[in-house]
Write the structure tokens for this entry.
Amino acid sequence: MKNPFVWFILLLIAGSLAVLLPEHAEQAESRRNATAMTGGDPEQGRIAIGYYGCGSCHTIRGVRGASALVGPPLTKIGARAFVAGVLPNTPDDLEHWIIDAPSIDPKTAMPNVGVSAPDARDIAAYLYTLR
Ligand code: HEC
């Protein structure tokens, strides 16, 4: 292997692995934590967020087209202390909010969009990966 180009390519691959592998491990851990907290499936939750159109009001990392600013961005919602300023950010309360926000805060602009309990669990699991 005298060709310097080959060494360059190998170095490039090693460099990208050094950057990508720890990030991958971190994401896998955050998914495991989110699943343990909620009993939901983050990947199904990501799909459900698209299905229910949450992105028409919220900016949500990792969900295509979810870049609206009608409601607050859900960036780092997993690390937030309160949900909508009215509920402690626990899995049960977050799911309750997702299923029926107006029943918690009658003045909220967030509508009940008919999310089922299992879908709310998956959605909460996805949101808890956002830290
Ligand atoms: C019609 C617009 C609209 C839609 C659709 C909508 N939301 Fe909201 N959402 C809001 C608004 C407005 C708020 C801020 C509510 C408040 O503070 O009273 C909010 C708040 C939230 C919060 C709390 C955010 C925080 O910063 O504490 C979460 C979590 C949330 N929405 C999740 C969802 C999910 C998941 C969906 C889809 C199932 C969804 N929303 C659909 C408008 C919407």
About this structure: The radius of gyration is 19 Å.
